[in-house]
Structures are given as C-alpha cells and as structure tokens.
Amino acid sequence: MNSIEVALAMLLAVVGSGYLVRMLPFSLPLPLVQIGLGAVIAGVFKHGVALDPAIFFLLFLPPLLFLDGWRIPKDGLMRDRGAILALALGLVVFTVVGVGFLIHWLIPAMPMAVAFALAAIVSPTDPVAVSSITARVPIPKRLMHILEGESLLNDASGLVCFRFAVAAAMTGSFSLLSASLTFLWVALAGFGVGMAFTVAVSFAQRWLSRHFGQEAGSPILISLLIPFGAYLLAEQVRASGILAAVAAGITMSYVELSGRLLATTRVQRTAVWNTVQFALNGIMFVLLGEQLPASLQGAMESVAQSGHRNPWWLLVYALAINIGLALLRLAWVWISLRLNVLKAHHHGTPVSRPHWRLLLATSLAGVRGAITLAGVMTLPLLLPDGTPFPARELTIFLATAVILLSLLVASIGLPPLLKGLQLPPEPAVQREENLARRSAAKAAIAAVEKAQHELLEKAPAGDVDTYTSAATRVIALYQHWLDEDASSEDEARQLRKADTAERELRLAALQGQREAVFELARHRRISDEVSRRLVREIDLQEARYR
Where is the Cation/H+ exchanger transmembrane domain (predicted)? Predict the structure, then answer.
C-alpha cells in the first residue's frame, strides 16, 4: 500500500510542479522543481522506489524516444543534418573518451569501464529540459531544431556506448573490432525493425478497420503500443531497441501522411500523447529527486572507499565532470563551425560567421535530463559472480549531479545569451503556409462542385436553389485564398489582417455558444447528453483557430 501512495504522490507532484513553476516570481526550470518535490516525497515517506533496471528502461524510454522521432521537424533535420550528425555522433564519442579518462583520473577506485559507462550516459542531451529553461525567453527555431535533432540521435548513440561499457564492466574484456561490428548490427537492425514493425502494424490496422470496422479508441491505443512492440522485437533479435523506437516514431510521421485517420481521433491522440509525455518526463525527474538522498548516502560510502573521508569531494567530482563536459562541447562546436566556414569558402559559397553568443548558447544548451536518468538507473545491481556492481551508487549520484548542475548553469546562462540572438533567416514559413492554403482551397472548391452535381442529380426540383445557394456559401469560404494569389502585396496583407480579425470574432462567438449551452444544462433545460455533444462540436471548431 505504501508503494501505491508513493506513486500517487509522485503523480500529484508532477501536476503540482506545473502550477508551482508559474507561481514563482522568478524563472526556474520545471525539471528542477520536480526534482525538489521528489526529494520532499523521499523525506516524507521514508521509502524509496525500487525498480528493476530493465523494467525501468522499458517503461520510460520507448514512448519518449518514439515521440521525439514522430514530432521532430523533418525538413530541419535534413537541412542541418551535417551539424546534427557532428553533434549526435562525433561529439558523443569525443565526450565518452575525454570524460571517461577524466573520471578515471579523478576517481582511481572507479574501474575504467564504469568510468566510460558514466561518461556515455551523461553524453546525451535533453531538449525537454532546454525547452523548460527557455520557456520565458524565445529560443531561435533553427537552433532548437538542431538541438532536437542532436538529442534524437545522440540518445541512441550515447545509450549504445553505455551498454558496451556496462558489458565490459560485467565481463572484464572489450574488443574494439567486436564492438564496431556489434554497433553496426544493433544500429542497422534496430532501425530496420522499427520501420518494418510500424509499417506492418499500420497496414494491419488499416486492413482490419476497412473490413471489420474498429472501436473509436483503437488507433490511439495502437499508437501507444507501437514503441513498446518495436523496442521488444528489436531486443529479441539482439538489435537496439532504442533505435527501433526512434525509427518507429520517424516512420509514424510518414505513415500518418496518408490522412486516413478521423479528425476527432487525431485531436484525441494528440491530447493523449501530450499527457503521456508530460507525465513520463515529470515522473522521471520526481524519481530523480526521490532517490537523491539514498544516492548521496551510497556515493559518500564509495568516496570513503576511494580514500577520501571528506564528502565535499562529491561536489568536486561533480563540478569537474560538468566543466569537462562543457569544455569538450565548446571545443567541438567551435571546431565544427570553423570547419563548416572553411568548407564553404573552399566551395565559393558565401557564409556569415556565427555570432559568439550562438557558439556559447549551443554549448550551454547541452542539458542532461530524462534519458541520462533512465539510462543510469539500468546499471546492474550485481556482477556475474554475485558481487555488487562497482561504484554503482556513486555513478548514479554523479549522473544526477550532472543533470542538476547542467540545468542550473543553463537556466542562468541561456536567457541572457538568447535574448535578441538572430540566426540566419528561416525558410519563408508564410509562403509555404499560403501555398498549402491555396492548394487546399482549390481542392475544397473542386470537391464542393463535385458534391453539388451529385446532390443535384438526386435532389427534387424544388431543392435545386437550396443546394446551389449552400454550395455558393461554402465556396466563398475558400475563394478569398485564391483571390489573394492574384492580388497585390498590400491587398494580401489586408486579407491576412481580415483573417486575423475573423479568427478573433469566431473564437468569441464559439465562447458565447459554449457558455449558453452550459447555462441551459445548469438549469436542466437540456440533458447532459445533449450538452456534452454540442460542447464537443464547439470545442472541435475552436481547435481550428487555436
């Protein structure tokens, strides 16, 4: 019963953190608030949450990685693929080697393989943590796309390196050739399994629903199960379940372009996934805070075994690791940008030098978060011979300290660096939106005209004028987008202003409708069933304008 109470307290802490972070008079990242609430829970209940590492990994990572792959902007991913790959792959290896040797030099009692495991698990960055920090200071979109792409790929590369290091710690041996071949297999097979599984499930779902129908919530539940299925299937063939979950998410973003899902299902699915993402990320940070006291106690014992009696050495280790991570990231980003500039000059391509604030912002944005926590919690409890895994509690504590310190440094340093920072211009978003609206308007008018002819063939003679008038009104809703295509820039600007004004008026009208329906329901002039149906219709209409 106590475990259920702790779990409910954690969920309540996740909900409360969202309100608390808005009530504070100063800007504080949401993950830090959740960590603090987790520490409070540990102090109140005097009971830690013990999870099997493999179960912990399975419960939290697949849906988070799947959602990252699903929602990341693919055009930005392809446009900045060079910078993203340099950060996601090259920087991870650079970090694992550099920080691994640094940790082993700082803590000689920690085996080399464990030091490299710690370096590997602190290499992935977390865009959710960055977003929470920059919520009150807008981050340039292109920089955010690069950070999201880096996080999407370095989750996989960092966690794969982590698994190799843990395997070396368990077996006491490591082969670079064997590791390289294994990496190729787990990466390629994992990606292939994720893609194939998602396509197969989507095809099967479509075939079954076309021939037998389906329950309204089935597509949403299937989308929730896909990342777990892809992960488990990849693990069965000894491939990377991490990459399988990422690949499943990327594939899902292309599968849904078929547009076969009902609009209401898409709206509901988005709400469900937003809730899952908020809950999982929040619970992970609350868990981090909840386990912080026990990790600190175990880390102090590990420090004592290494010959240091003063617990302040823990702070020295944590600061040294964070400084090492920051300097390695800064050096890598600077070298990468210099190479890109030289390459552009060599090809005769004009390129502007990046602002120094962009360089520092990109370096400080390497915030660690949920993935680091999830990975480090999977450290085995025992070695194959039954002895405790060396320095496990110290490793968990140092990973936790890296998360906390990187959040603090970024929350203090990023806002002033990002304020007023301008990146090279983005592709013309307004032009793309206008193109999509005009194409959609043409298709809508053609569909209305086709439906009008079909209805007129079946309609009685007396209803012809009714259908014609209705078709004219519907076509008029789309005609102004085609008129804008041929209008001058001033006329187009005026039309966009009119659209904005119409949007505000429609939102006001919908709010008035909703209040009237609620008023009738409160006075029992209409039934609850009728009020729920009408309010749902109004809510769906409002979603168009939000």
Answer: 13-419
Q: In angstroms, rounded to a whole number, what is the distance separating the alpha carbons of residues 182 and 311?
A: 40
Instruction: Write down the number of H helices and E strands in the chain.
Output: 21, 0
The residue type found at 247 is: A
Q: Measured between alpha carbons, how far is 445 from 478 in angstroms, rounded to an integer? A: 7
pTM of the model: 0.78
The residues, ordered by sequence, that sit 6+ positions from 446 with a Cβ below 8 Å of its Cβ are none
Answer positive or negative: Cα dihedral of 402, 119, 147, 273.
negative
pLDDT per position as a tens digit, 316-341: 888 999 999 999 999 998 888 777 76
Number of alpha carbons in the 13 Å side-chain half-sphere of residue 167: 12
Tokens of 333: 């980003």
Neighbours of 26 (CB within 10 A): 6
Q: Note whether 216 and 265 are within 8 A (CB).
A: yes
The residue with tokens 């505000």 is 504
Amino acid, res. 127: P
- CA–CA dist 209, 334 (Å, integer): 53
- Name 382's bridge partners: 388
In eight-state DSSP terms, residue 425 is P
Query: Which regions of the chain carry the CATH code 1.20.1530.20?
Result: 1-421
Using one digit for the tens of pLDDT, what is the confidence trace for 518-535? 888 888 888 888 888 888
Model confidence band, residue 430 (pLDDT cutoffs 50, 70, 90): low
DSSP SS3 for 368: coil
- Residue 36's CB is within 10 A of a number of other CB atoms, namely 18
What span, in angstroms and rounded, lies between the C-alpha atoms of 487 and 124?
49
Looking up tokens 């998360």 gives 403
CA distance 107 to 299: 12
Query: What CATH number labels 1-421?
Result: 1.20.1530.20
8 Å CB contact between 86 and 336: yes
Tracing tokens 């400080």 back to the chain, one arrives at: 364
Q: How many CB atoms within 10 Å of residue 378?
A: 20
Residue 241, judged by CB atoms within 10 A of its CB (0-12, 13-18, 19+), counts as buried
CA distance 244 to 229: 9
CA neighbours within 13 Å on the CB side: how many for 183?
Answer: 18
Run of H or E including 24: none
Vertex 471, ends 468 and 472: CA angle to 5°?
A: 85
Q: Of the candidates 544, 313, 286, which has an alpha carbon nearest to the alpha carbon of residue 437?
A: 544
d(CA 96, CA 7): 34
User: Which amino acid does the sequence have at 252?
Assistant: M
Q: State whether residue 327 is helix, strand or coil.
A: helix
Place of tokens 């709010």: 511
